[in-house]
């Protein structure tokens, strides 16, 4: 077996949307933002040894009960992953690749918020290894619940 190989081919923005449903009235209120973040990732094989990983994020910022803005992003990347054991490959696609994509998604969300004249959310760093482990555990729990 040849040596394992992992490379970034390309990182790209697949989809981005921004909504500010209460503008311009929201700008008159004092701004006490409450941030909500939903996140997921998917991967698919494009061809032998080439994979696309998409990090999907929805950032909802509320001021009291009103949605100040909502940003949705699909930050994607194409990655070469060859000669890697299946379990390792799953972790690479599920944790390593989203970790690589996250700073790009974070910057795009900050940029679009600023264009909407809101402060940048400045999302905190995420431990993608722990996040991946939680996803795997939740999937295993859901599978065992289905069997019972």
TrEMBL record:
Any one GO MF annotation of this record: unfolded protein binding
Keywords attached to this entry: Chaperone, Cytoplasm, Protein transport, Translocation, Transport
Pfam families: SecB
Top-level taxon: Bacteria
GO biological process, one term: protein transport
Localization in the cell: Cytoplasm
Gene3D superfamilies assigned: SecB-like
CC annotations in GO: cytoplasm
Quaternary data: Homotetramer, a dimer of dimers. One homotetramer interacts with 1 SecA dimer.
General function of this protein: One of the proteins required for the normal export of preproteins out of the cell cytoplasm. It is a molecular chaperone that binds to a subset of precursor proteins, maintaining them in a translocation-competent state. It also specifically binds to its receptor SecA.
Similarity comment: family membership: Belongs to the SecB family.
Protein name in the entry: Protein-export protein SecB
Organism, scientific name: Litorivicinus lipolyticus
């Amino acid at each position: 077996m040849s040596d394992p190989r992992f490379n970034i081919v390309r990182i790209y923005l697949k989809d981005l949307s921004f909504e500010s449903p209460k503008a311009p009235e929201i700008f008159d209120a004092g701004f006490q933002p409450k941030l909500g973040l939903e996140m997921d990732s998917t991967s698919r094989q494009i061809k032998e040894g080439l994979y696309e990983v998409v990090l999907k994020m929805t950032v909802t910022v509320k001021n009291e009960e009103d949605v100040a803005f909502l940003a949705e992003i699909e930050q994607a990347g194409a990655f070469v992953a060859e000669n890697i054991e299946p379990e390792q490959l799953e972790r690479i696609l599920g944790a390593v690749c989203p970790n690589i994509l996250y700073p790009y998604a974070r910057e795009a969300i900050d940029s679009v918020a600023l264009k909407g004249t809101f402060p940048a959310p400045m999302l905190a760093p995420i431990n993608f290894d722990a996040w991946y482990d939680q996803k795997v555990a939740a999937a295993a729990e859901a599978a065992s619940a289905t069997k019972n």
